[in-house]
Write a structure and sequence with these properties.
alpha/beta, Rossmann fold, five-stranded parallel sheet, globular
Length: about 325
């Protein structure tokens, strides 16, 4: 890979390999392997974020530092963008200064794809508009593998603000390669018409969707991206899209959420803190997953990483 711009273009073999490396790094971090901090000691990683972020930006920063890289954070409000400089020129200047890897988040869909055409430095897409968020989908898959082991017969239900969700898109592209069924459930106005052509089922009935679900992936209501007529009201959204204790679904179904959570909007506080919730496991897995991806681009010896067979993929 020259860049990581989305999961749509990744084949299953590549995704399996990335997952194995992520599990390797998770074990090494738990063992506090001192060799980790020397792998990328001469490399510079730039977090270039033009949208607010906590989990993704900090996770990438910690991941790079765990591997020994230096990290610089470039935020829109404190960069030369406010003086009129384009993001294109900002990245060209950072590249000229010797940055070895860009982690890029931008509110315009397709921006990482556009910039990658002109940069020699690798780019990892950390979220572009409503398009994709590939590292979130990969860490979500990693979390599912940890709990469910075998993916083949799983039913995954993605619930909520699908229209504006880059997480939904990346997970559709990723999970469709491995699980038996992906169902999208929301209000009709929040499911893009073109999604009916993807390898998914579409439902407008939450109870019917989750009654036999193995994974329930709840999405954040992205109020900042909504137009006036997307939803009647927050009250109506809660009525038809909130995951709560009134719904009947399997006791072993995993409840996921990419964060940040609007408490008691997308799901009840009770379910957020329940034993079925793996939200914090997703957060924890973000670190080794992003270490694996950074290593792929900057560690010349990453192919020598010894990974073990994963039952979920290998039989």
């Amino acid at each position: 890979m020259k860049h990581l711009l989305g999961v749509k273009e990744l084949d299953t073999a590549t995704i399996k390999s990335i997952l194995k490396e992520a599990f390797y790094f998770k074990k090494q971090v738990e063992k506090k392997d001192p060799k980790l901090s020397t792998l990328l000691k001469n490399d510079v990683v730039a977090n270039v974020f033009f949208e607010p972020s906590t989990r993704t930006r900090v996770s990438f920063e910690i991941a790079a530092k765990k591997l020994g890289a230096s990290v610089i954070n470039v935020l829109a409000e404190s960069s030369s963008i406010v003086k009129g400089e384009t993001i294109f020129d900002t990245l060209l200047n950072l590249e000229a200064m010797g940055v070895d890897l860009f982690i890029l988040r931008h509110n315009q869909s397709g921006m990482p794809h556009y910039l990658s055409k002109y940069l020699k430095t690798p780019v990892i897409n950390a979220g572009d508009g409503s398009h994709e968020h590939p590292t979130q989908a990969l860490l979500d898959l990693m979390t599912i593998v940890e709990y469910k082991k075998n993916l083949k017969n799983l039913k995954v239900v993605i619930v909520g603000d699908i229209l504006h969700s880059r997480v939904a898109r990346s997970n559709i592209f990723c999970l469709s390669k491995f699980v038996s069924q992906v169902t999208l459930c929301s209000l009709p106005t929040l499911i893009p018409k073109g999604f009916s052509e993807l390898d998914v089922s579409i439902s407008y009935n939450l109870q019917e969707s989750v009654k036999d679900a193995d994974i329930i992936m709840v999405l954040r209501l992205q109020k900042e991206r909504h137009e006036q007529n997307d939803i009647p009201s927050i009250k109506e959204y809660i009525k038809y899209c909130q995951l709560n204790e009134k719904l009947k679904f399997p006791k072993d179904a995993l409840i996921m959420h990419p964060g940040p959570v609007n408490r008691n909007v997308e799901m009840s506080d009770g379910l957020y803190h329940s034993s079925q919730s793996v939200v914090l496991s997703q957060v924890r897995n973000g670190l080794p997953m992003r270490m694996a991806l950074i290593s792929r681009f900057l560690n010349k010896d990453h192919k020598k990483i010894k990974t073990k067979k994963l039952t979920a993929y290998d039989g």
